[in-house]
């Protein structure tokens, strides 16, 4: 296939008929997120508290993989109504009470996902909403980046229209070699998601950047089998780019570390005396402390951006 815009190749590679997110092993077969394993158990507690604070009894987990976080939520909070949304059919082993909706993929949302009274969690969704990639050429002209099926890149036409306007407002780039991941597609996806809620809280969780921390050469990256690998749109690897979270215009954007600390999740080491009086309890407390430490590590998962918008019925 001839070179085409990264945005199109990216979409096919993730959500097409043979796309990465449709593979049998699911995303968890290639990488671990905060939603998996012991991390997911603690994250489920966090989500439950946020739902309580928002005054809702439903949680919608958008782009939820194979429902790993929903399983933790069901165990921790069986009182909550849980809805999972992803591009695949309902996974086996998902708790029976969990509702499942099939998503078209990318920024597209199921038609049934409307008028929500819920905590809507989009955990590592926007970073895999494909967007336009552009690069400043040797003459200082910002051009769209094209890509072949084997990952070979070339520069196409000068960037124009709404994408160019977004760059001017949010990510000015003038130095030859500078790259931009144009956030307009993510902004529109976020706005559509926010508009689907009538009350509650909408949250997007992703690695992100703001105007003060824009990466000069972009962040487009590929992962396969737990490793960073070549950025090739072949459907065999995840393709992701960090999110310009300030352009989302959410009510607030804070780090994961700040959110967990605000809710009282601290990585406190248990009293050593407990190792004698309650050794099993000590081991459990130590494990939990280590998990919270990982989730709040400012240089790792704790650096995730949480973009949050609150809703009151009639004012989405």
What does this structure look like?
- This protein is globular.
- The protein has helices at 6-15, 37-54, 68-76, 161-170, 184-195, 256-262, 274-277, 279-296; strands spanning 4-5, 58-62, 81-86, 99-102, 116-123, 133-136, 142-147, 153-158, 179-181, 197-206, 208-209, 221-224, 227-229, 238-240, 243-244, 252-255, 305-311.
- The protein contains 8 helices and 17 strands.
- The termini are far apart.
- It has a domain at 7-128 and 182-265 and 298-311: Rossmann fold.
- The strands form 4 sheets. It has a 7-stranded mixed sheet. Strands 1, 6, 7, 8 and 9 form a 5-stranded antiparallel sheet that branches. Strands 13-12-14 form a 3-stranded antiparallel sheet.
- With 316 residues, it is α/β, with parallel strands linked by helices.
- The mean pLDDT is 93.
- The longest helix has 18 residues, at 37-54.
Number of strands: 17
Query: What do we call the CATH topology of the domain at 7-128 and 182-265 and 298-311?
Result: Rossmann fold
Which band does the percent of strand residues land in? 25-35%
Q: How much helical structure, as a percent, in the residues?
A: 25-40%
Computed CA radius of gyration, to the nearest angstrom: 20 Å
Order of helices and strands: EHHEHEEEEEEHEHEEEEEEEHHHE
Counted by DSSP, the helix tally is 8
InterPro entries: NDUFAF7, NDUFAF7_sf, SAM-dependent_MTases_sf
Protein name: SAM-dependent methyltransferase
GO molecular function, one term: methyltransferase activity
Organism: Knoellia flava
């Amino acid at each position: 296939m001839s070179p085409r815009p990264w945005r199109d190749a990216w979409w096919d590679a993730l959500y097409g008929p043979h796309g990465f997110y449709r593979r049998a092993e699911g995303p968890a077969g290639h990488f671990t997120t905060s939603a998996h394993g012991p991390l997911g158990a603690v994250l489920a507690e966090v989500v439950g508290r946020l739902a309580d604070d928002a005054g809702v009894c439903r949680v919608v987990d958008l782009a939820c993989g194979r429902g790993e976080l929903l399983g933790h939520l069901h165990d921790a909070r069986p009182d909550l109504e849980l809805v999972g949304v992803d591009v695949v059919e309902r996974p086996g082993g998902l708790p029976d009470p969990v509702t499942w909706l099939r998503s078209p993929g990318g920024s597209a949302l199921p038609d049934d996902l409307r008028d929500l009274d819920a905590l809507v969690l989009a955990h590592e969704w926007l970073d895999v909403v494909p967007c336009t990639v552009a690069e400043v050429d040797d003459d200082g002209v910002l051009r769209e980046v094209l890509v072949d099926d084997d990952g070979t890149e070339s520069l196409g036409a000068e960037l124009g229209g709404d994408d160019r306007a977004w760059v001017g407002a949010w990510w000015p780039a003038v130095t030859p070699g500078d790259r931009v991941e144009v956030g307009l597609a993510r902004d529109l996806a976020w706005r559509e998601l926010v508009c689907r809620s009538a009350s509650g809280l909408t949250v997007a969780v992703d690695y992100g950047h703001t105007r003060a921390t824009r990466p000069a050469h972009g962040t487009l990256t590929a992962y396969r089998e737990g490793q960073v690998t070549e950025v090739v749109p072949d459907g065999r690897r995840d393709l992701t780019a960090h999110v310009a979270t300030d352009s989302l215009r959410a009510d607030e954007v804070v780090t994961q570390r700040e959110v967990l600390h605000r809710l009282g999740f601290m990585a406190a080491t248990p009293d050593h005396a407990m190792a004698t009086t309650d050794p099993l309890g000590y081991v459990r407390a130590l494990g939990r402390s280590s998990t919270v430490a990982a989730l709040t590590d400012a240089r790792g998962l704790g650096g995730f951006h949480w973009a949050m918008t609150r809703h009151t019925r009639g004012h989405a």
